[in-house]
TrEMBL record:
Top-level taxon: Eukaryota
Residue intervals of the Rabaptin GTPase-Rab5 binding domain: 1-42
Name the UniProt record assigns to this protein: Rab GTPase binding effector protein 1
InterPro entries in the cross-refs: Rabaptin_Rab5-bd_dom
Length: 42
């Protein structure tokens, strides 16, 4: 049971880290899109 709990915690940590990475990528994509939009507007 202890081992299972540890694996679950590991899994949660990995998922949390992956979520952070995805959010960062989305943020960068949004910034890129905004920069492109600004360049097009000029």
């Amino acid at each position: 049971l202890q081992e299972m709990r540890i694996t679950l915690e590991e899994q949660l940590k990995k998922e949390a880290a992956a979520k952070v990475v995805v959010e960062q990528l989305m943020f960068e994509e949004k910034n890129k899109a905004q920069r492109l939009q600004t360049e097009l507007d000029v």
